Amino acid sequence: MSKPIEDYGYIGNTLTGALxxxxxxxxxxxxxxxxxxxxxxxxxxxxxxxxxQLAPAGPVLRSSRRYVPGTAVxxxxxxxxxxxxxxxxxxxxxxxxxxxxxxxxxxxEAGHVRMRMQxxxxxxxxxxxxxxxxxxxxxxxxxxxxxxRLYTPATLHGRGLHxxxxxxxxxxxxxxFVLAYDPSHRPARIPRDWDIQLKETLARWRDWSGRCRFxxxxxxxxxxxxxxxxxxxxxxxxxxxxGIVAAPTTSLPxxxxxxxxxxxxxxxxxxxxxxxxxLLGAGYRDEAAAWSEWLMRAAGGDPxxxxxxxxxxxxxxxxxxxxxxxxxxxxxxxxxxxxxxxxQRQLDVAGELMDAFHAARKQGLxxxxxxxxxxxxxxxxxKVWREPDEGIWEVRGGARHFTFSRVMCWVAFDRGVRxxxxxxxxGPVAHWRRIRKEIADDVHRHGWNERRQAFVQSxxxxxxxxxxxxxxxxxxxxxxxxxxxxxxEAIERELMVDGLVRRYRPERADDGLPGGEGMFLxxxxxxxxxxxxxxxxxxxVALFERLLALRNDLGLLAEEYDPRGGRQLGxxxxxxxHIALINTAYNxxxxxxxxxxxxxxxxxxx
Length: 606
Prior knowledge:
By secondary structure, the chain is of the alpha+beta class. The protein contains 15 helices and 28 strands. This is Trehalase.
């Protein structure tokens, strides 16, 4: 039986990351990078697909866990009848792209506790059994291009097709386990002492988190939520390129037992602008610049080949495959790697990209000769903005004229106009103004449903869509426009379940997939942002507090939430959910938060 998503903590090192369950089992780890094959894939199957358990051998009376404050170092404390131990899990920051270490340390706290370790390595998502042997005092597991080495003073034994160790830990004693990855064709790099690496990792995280700029006192729940989200975002960053993965996992279902299971270990252009505001608002200018530069490199080239998502370094071919040997989380099949959405037409990303460049210009971030690319992008968009696409939610039910896609085409030309007006760039500004007005008129004529008194998901439909909560935030309408107000009210009436917002109603949207999904957490944060813009601060605070209460005990959020089942759904932890949390917190804490900044604060754009 699959463990609840809430049972997992996340540790990462800006190259890859691991999911650690309450019971001491690491059930997911891809090596050497986020999007490579998993050597522990029990998350999507069982222990036989790879895991690493480290826990007391006997009954546990109680367990508790926490992150060391300001860090991504996880401590899990177990109490037994014989004593108390803490397992410290962390990944030192990656200094070399193809060398990764995961370190687990058992620290005795009181009495004597009998511990048991079981290590099951299966490369290629649980598919490949490695060749395991001992070289001197090191356990080596190797298959094809991959090699893992386990360094520990504990005595190891082979048992079946697993490696086990049993040992006792007394108060004040430490038993370390260092699992190191290197390509199999290269000499092993001997890890440095675990205690030195722990001290360095703690110091680097504390130095980084100490730069957080959020005007709330230490210990304030909002500040702690923002800081944990920022640390999670940093731990989802691929440091060699600056790309930020949407999540470190694949195929965690939006509906248990359903087919809406996607690979999110890639970088989405759609996250671009909100990510910049989250990082810049918190004072992380270097990370914002790295993300901004990644956007330019990934998208650069022929604008006609612009994609919605890319690989960690900007790779474009992300072929979607199914892994039939994995039964899936909670029997949710298929398990997918790769994401076919990379080949979809999604016109809104042009607006997202232009908006991100606009936000970067306002903050003085540099793009080299990126203006030439933006000119070409607008020239291309002029030719195609009237065409249908698959939309922000990447539906698989066929292209249509999505209202939000059309609005983001408006955003693209609006940001081009402002680049000329506000920043002195050269461009056909009068021509862009005409196109901007033409798109706005098109949206008002076809995207507004008079009977529903709301903007709707696509032209000619009567389906509501939570993406239209962003109309005021992107500056398309002022927040006090009656059409925006009534659209928000319609979404409140029809898309809210137990105080949370769903993206749309799948049974009415014909998105090409069976089954349903949970409440999309970013949309609920967007509603809180809309409340801020509408002056409904009490409603915004209440919804924000409701969303904070959905985090697990470590402060982590997945993509969606099932209010009836009381559980998180979808890939985990989800960058977009944490980005939305950060921005909503700043919208509530500041008179000029990201929502106002994105609309340039005048509330009068058309």
